[in-house]
Design a protein that fits this description.
The structure is a homodimer.
Chain A (H helix, E strand, L loop, with lengths): L1 H11 L3 E8 L4 E6 L7 H22 L4 E8 L2 E7 L4 E8 L4 H19 L1
Antiparallel strand pairs in A: 1-2, 1-5, 3-4, 4-5
Helix pairs in contact in A: 1-3
Chain lengths: ~120, ~120
């Protein structure tokens, strides 16, 4: 049920490589990826879950309202992360020349469908 | 020397509230902020330094190239963070209705001046 939505996110985002719905424990519920050499999606999942946990903790301490979105840009990729519920979030990995604005829009838009699927 | 650049970043970013150059130890070299109630900039600095350390560690494990930029959006603020050197980074906090695209552009542009000032 998640796969179709994740595929839409990747295919329509402009430069999307992979997308996953996962828990803060680093375990993915479902994922969709384009073939891309040299990416260990499972490792990425676990590591970004750790980052997200740290961000979530920080945001709670600072009392600046719920965490909505995190973007991490490195030399090779941009990873967009959007909180879905208290337990789950969605990630979208873009290649270096991905369309950041369009990807953010797609992720925000499809979050509603993902939340419905989670409910 | 940093203050003028940080002021430029805040004033010209469109919705900017505060900006700081700080180390991964959470100690700010310099900062500039508009008066804004209910923000403890020192606490924010230390907490975001912890987040950045976690992101940096993750990016190194995943070998996806150097960390360049991190954006964290919550209900009340968006915090943009850009790596300057191995030891220092710059932050820009935007209000809820800040111009994200312009802020990213300003931070990228002024990073060069900040790196020069750090050298």
């Amino acid at each position: 049920m998640f796969k179709n939505i994740l595929q839409d996110i990747v295919e329509q985002s402009g430069g999307g490589i992979s997308s996953a719905v996962m828990g803060y424990d680093g375990i993915a519920i479902d994922q969709y990826e384009k073939p891309c050499e040299g990416i260990d999606l499972q490792l990425i999942a676990v590591e970004y879950a750790n980052v997200l946990k740290e961000v979530k903790r920080t945001v709670e301490i600072l009392e600046t309202g719920d965490m909505e979105e995190v973007a991490i840009r490195t030399e090779r990729f941009t990873v967009l992360i959007r909180a879905l519920t208290d337990e789950y979030f969605v990630t979208l990995t873009l290649g270096r020349n991905g369309n950041f604005g369009k990807a953010r829009y797609m992720l925000a838009k499809e979050s509603f469908r993902l939340r419905e699927a989670l409910a």
